[in-house]
């Protein structure tokens, strides 16, 4: 495809992030949505290889997810910290599962062990049934007020130099501390969600605000909302913006789309057989993020350069499930579209988990970093976005 010469020398948008870090999600065994393998355990050789592939591929961070039936995220984050010298482990944590002073201690310990690499992603909880599996019966609104209180206690535990007491809506204790200190000043705190409460807490208090992949216009308005809340709260900084995609890549756009349609057929078939997923199929999800994902999917399949929503529809909006489809060049260009809106943390995790992580590190991450280096050196965009239009080419949006 021939580049549009008018695009080649465009200045870098004022909103664009200049430095970007790449995130993966660490898988514990070879089971995937394409090829489910019944297992509740950790395949240690696979896990080691996965972490090392992230390091070799130039990833910066990896998320250790949390669920009522998953491995413990703190223990797995500790393992990542010892298997890699560079990867920053992100602990997914639900406030209902651990008292905040204990969580502060655990996170500070992880930060010390990894010499400042620890992060935490707080999950307030978007599904009543999943929360109840571990004894949490608060309403959604109450869960968010608990998260708000949890954040304050975490930070006080890391920074106060004298014992302190707390008496709040959800937590009470006397004369705690001073707590165990992190390696750095604090451990960065991420918050995600699409509810009003999530935006309010995240805008006021989070170091990072997390989004699932949505169309560019919608992400733009959501980023602006987070920034506006931050400013109105008196903050002089802004939360970093984290966006998550499930790229499907191949040598050409056409081959990638053929792979994508094969993938979604397999995902739908496996989803329909899974007894856990059968209970949610056809039901309206409780969390706003999943509702939005399904709404986008119901409107159309393809948005912008490469965003594909059929993967989200296939799993009834469960989890981060929107794809970017195309050649490595087209997907890298699509990622840059989001970087241009201010995203500086980009999570890319695949459906063929280990092989995709290796391919992203070989073919996608270097292209994005090359473009960012060009921008830093010249103050101008390179030609990648103009050369690889993806769906823009057929939609007349180029």
Automatic annotation (TrEMBL):
Enzyme class: oxidoreductase
CDD domains: Alkanesulfonate_monoxygenase
Keyword annotations: Flavoprotein, FMN, Monooxygenase, Oxidoreductase
Assigned EC number: 1.-.-.-
GO molecular function, one term: oxidoreductase activity
Luciferase-like domain residues: 41-344
Top-level taxon of the source organism: Bacteria
A matching Pfam family: Bac_luciferase
Bilayer-crossing regions: none
Keyword Metal-binding tagged: no
PANTHER family found in the cross-reference section: ALKANESULFONATE MONOOXYGENASE, ALKANESULFONATE MONOOXYGENASE-RELATED
Name of this protein: LLM class flavin-dependent oxidoreductase
Lineage: Bacteria, Bacillati, Actinomycetota, Actinomycetes, Mycobacteriales
